[in-house]
Amino acid sequence: MPPSSAYRPEPRFFDLGPDYADAVAAADFPETILRYRNDRAAGQVGLEGLSDAEWIAHFGRFQPLPGQPGPVAMRYHGHQFRQYNPDLGDGRGFLAAQMRDASGRLLDLGTKGSGQTPWSRNGDGRLTLKGGMREVLAATMLETLGVPTSRAFSLIETGEALERGDEPSPTRSAVLVRLQHSHVRFGTFQRAAYFKRTDQIETLIEHVRTLYHPSVATGDVPGLMTAIVEASAKLTARWIAAGFVHGVLNTDNLNVTGESFDYGPWRFLPHYDPQFTAAYFDHGGLYAFARQPEAVFWNLTQLASCLALVSDAKSLADALNGFGPAYIRELRAAFLMRLGVHSLGEAADQRLVDATLGLMREAGADLRWEPVFFDWFGGFASSARALSGPRARLYQGEAFDVFRFALMEHAPDRIERLEHPMFAAREPEEMLIDEVEAIWAAIDADDDWAPFHAKLERLEAARLAWGFTG
Ligand code: AMP
Ligand code: MG
User: From the alpha carbon of 124, which atom of ligand 1 is closest?
Assistant: First the structure.
């Protein structure tokens, strides 16, 4: 079936023209085996009615969807681990389509592993199946935990044998499609600034303002910076509350809507560990768990310096300085969300954040990150459950008393959520490395996709149980 009437194509980035992207063609893959289609996401953009054959034609063979001009590789630069690299750009992906969702947001379908482009450098333009599987798991877990994230839309195995230094090789190949609220990166602006194209910076500003931050007035560049600062602060706070380590917070991996994307060497924290580092190549721990706010702020300063070419530097600096307060505010909100309690004012909310981290710090490796939020969800109403559960012996002592006191001050938010069967389980859904590796091992050894699909089903149940919004 063709797209439904809910499908509303609007290829706005394509309209910017050849200064911003290059027309490309997808690789001709030897095979296209559908491994995952996100029908819930598809439903939000009117594409759920596609048959599997049509799905593969669009997301494995990349026949353009109706109203879409054909794939373009986006141009961008970026700082990688704080080193400027002018040779970036979509090297193994492209923008395939743009459309409005049911709530009117402009969304992109972007690819990973779809073949070489003018920006591939020495790369093969491909994605490993394991890498694709990992991105599906990360995006789904993040959505479950209330993080503003791109969504894995499609994963198709492509039948090639890839050589990789970080996976036993040859390894299987795939093409991923993600659904995301803008792929305009900080690095998109950096490229225009690098070539001193203030006209392009102006064009990008107006593009981003009208499409993604329409409440900002025309010409109010510091206002736009503030909107991006606040969205980025919220994203960072939600990562922290989710115990997520992105791994590669380069300026080409952060976008103007504060929606997280590009999940490579990510990890979820096993337990409280500020220095926890995800990427094996991040030797200095630059993007360690607790350094993510600093990394995002540093990247925002790079964006601001591009905008300063066409706007007032002092006002942009003021906007940047809003990051710290916005992050602290959003961190409180994120912890309240995760603990399922209402705000009780700044001071009490901050006590709760501090007490939660204090409990985890004191308890050490025995108390995993995710179970704390699971055990104590809704506050007082979970006391009996938490204190008779598998971690009961960890819930004692001074740091625990401080935590319990801070939590009990707060009233539960939508307490009926505790009636969901998920809370009758002894353990929450997590996404720790051993489980990810076990899911991959079944695929790798036996082509057994059952653990992968079972995990996604459990995460969908958890998403409904948590009921996180906004
Ligand atoms: P990433 O770390 O995935 O954000 O990628 C950084 C840059 O390297 C981007 O410009 C990518 O398009 C490019 N890149 C990564 N892997 C490949 C590959 N296998 N082939 C071509 N380009 C790649
Ligand atoms: Mg990237």
Answer: 20
Instruction: Confirm if 241 and 129 have CB atoms less than 8 A apart.
Output: no
The whole-angstrom separation of Cα 6 and Cα 102 is: 7
CA of 120 to the centre of ligand 1 (A): 7
- Domain ranges across the chain: 8-183, 187-331, 340-466
Active site residues: 252
Ligand 2 centroid to residue 151 C-alpha, Å: 15
113 close to ligand 1 (CB < 6 Angstrom): no
Which tens digit of pLDDT belongs to each residue from 294-327? 999 999 999 999 999 999 999 999 999 999 999 9
For residue 111 and ligand 1, the question of a CB distance below 6 A is answered with: no
* Whether the model pTM is above 0.85: yes
Omega within 30 of 0 (cis) for the link into 428: no
User: Which distant-in-sequence residues (6+ apart) come within 8 Å of 261 by Cβ?
Assistant: 149, 150, 178, 180, 183, 253, 255
Number of H helices, E strands in the chain: 16, 13
pLDDT digits (tens, 9 = 90+) for 138-191: 999 999 999 999 999 999 999 999 999 999 999 999 999 999 999 999 999 999
Q: Which residue has the tokens 């609220």?
A: 181
Q: Are 120 and 440 in contact (CB under 8 A)?
A: no
Phi-psi region of 399 (alpha: psi -120 to 50; beta: other; left: phi over 0): alpha
Query: For 411-442, what is the HEC assignment?
Result: CECCHHHHHCHHHHCCCCCCCCHHHHHHHHHH
Q: Which atom of ligand 1 is nearest to the CA of 76?
A: 10
